[in-house]
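Render this sequence as a predicted structure.
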Amino acid sequence: MTNRIQCLDMNAMDWVDFPPMNTPRSECQLADLNGYLCVFGLNTKYVPSIEIYSFSTCKWNGLQPRYRPSEYSKITAHNGILYILDFENGFLQFYDVSSNKWTSKAIGKSSLRNFGFAATESYLYVIGGNENGEYMKTVKRYDLSNNSWCELASLSRGLEHPTTKVLGSIITICDGFNVEEYDIDIDKWNKLSCLPEEVRWTTVSISNTVFK
């Protein structure tokens, strides 16, 4: 458990220290919020909590959701909106950083955990995961406009804890071994390659900036 965050400067190829978080955390997830960095993880009391870092002020502040998420919740962000998906309690929360407002929706409870989570302008994507001990191949899409779920083209195999990143109309995922991409427009998966042996099963972030 630590309050330390580092960023890899891709130009200098060197690690840069951020100011330390106010609260040490473990099992952290990160999301980019258009000028803010959001960190979700377990604090020293093993309670899920959120801290947000402003790149303009270089300061950390606590961010309090409307409802406390479970430790198995997943976060993602798109266009300045933070999404928290909590299947254990059956709700979706989202935070608009520009208006500093939270809203929430009931989505139904599920035992699905450790899934990949990605967002676009109109949809949320839930990829793989573990449900009752089974690695899932399913890909589910949530329509933000009409609050409905549908299933898309399945994965080639069950995945747990896939790292996800939306790049235009492509969702790229990495499970610590393989890198695959999903084309939203044609609803099709394409396997790109295997990771080199020396970095397999390490923590991977698919982004222009890598945090650790």
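Summary. The domain at 111-205 is CATH 2.120.10.30 (Neuraminidase). Residues 180 and 191 are 4 Å apart (CA to CA).
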